[in-house]
Fold this protein.
Amino acid sequence: MITHVAIRHQGRVWSLPRPYRHHHVMRAILWLVEEFGQYTKEQAERFSSGDDQGFLDDTGKYLTRQEAEVVARQCNQIKNGEIIGGVLTSEDLW
């Protein structure tokens, strides 16, 4: 079962539970940049790349959008049974 939106970058996974969206995770990362200087703005902007966006399942495992779609279909989590665009988004789940 898919439980969180997540962003993976440089060996770290950042996530928030439903009903949050990927942009909420990006905002949290940008806040860390501004408050603590953990990343440069250029590094933080790379988080918006679709390659690093995915989900966590109920075991805490990071899944790409494609992997998460398989799990979401098996668990009947996709609203109306169809994804909106070409890849799974949080809007398709909650």
The mean pLDDT is 87.
